[in-house]
Design brief:
Blueprint (H helix, E strand, L loop, with lengths): L1 H53 L2
């Protein structure tokens, strides 16, 4: 019984570690995506301002 428990414990901890890594990576990807969207919006606005300034 004790041996079985010792075998199961590392699996559970490994699973927790993987879920934690997945959660953290998903948050990181979301933040990167948001920053990328903000950058695209800023570039788009800058280009629109340049185009509107060039028009007579």
């Amino acid at each position: 019984m004790d041996l079985d428990r010792e075998k199961i414990k590392p699996r559970i901890s490994r699973l927790r570690f993987y879920t934690l890594v997945v959660e953290v990576s998903s948050y990181v990807w979301i933040t990167i995506f948001m920053l990328f969207n903000c950058m695209l919006l800023c570039i788009y606005n800058a280009i629109n301002q340049c185009i509107s300034k060039q028009k007579p």
